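input
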Amino acid sequence: YVASLPPGPATPPHDWGVRPVSGPETTVIAQGQDNRAENTLVMINPRPFRPDDRFAANTLKELVNIRLRDVLRNENGGTYNAQADISLSPLPYPHATAEVAFTCAPARQKALDDLALGVLDSIVHDEFSQAAFDQAKAIAVRGVQGYLKRNAFWSIILPEYSLKGYPLEELAGLSERYAQVTRAQVVALAREVLTTSRTLEVVLKPAP
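output
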């Protein structure tokens, strides 16, 4: 890996001033080959980049995943693969991105879309069980413990730490940092990044 890197100093990132459109905005593409709807909800928000927020962000991601599975799959039988991601970045400008993706029957797309947005709003308003939060935090802790033992993890994490300015000495105590995340921290971050009123949505539906 190291031998494959180009010689000389790295080219610093450049902000070209391009920003996403301000939602809400929905784009429907009726070109799908399968009889299903593929839904992607994205919320992009400028916010100060604070490195320590990543622990709450990953815990929030797990919490959203748990609640999406509970509501969309277990309670409504609408999908098997709802998935969320929360990312924070200082580049090319400080911002947060929250994304939810799931597939479902085309006839249920709108109903499940509303349910997914309702899940996000419930987290923003601190309307979830303590058991769900504890489970999310436990998943985040176990995930880090497993990643640290995999060679592939290091080839991903070291460039990220260098790019985002995270201290490498923190790696030895990652599990403890995740274990210290509080419910209040997760809810506060959710209010900044789960902005459902400004959602950008792309829906792929079957071709007519």
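quick obs: Strands lie at 25-32, 37-46, 83-89, 95-104, 200-206.
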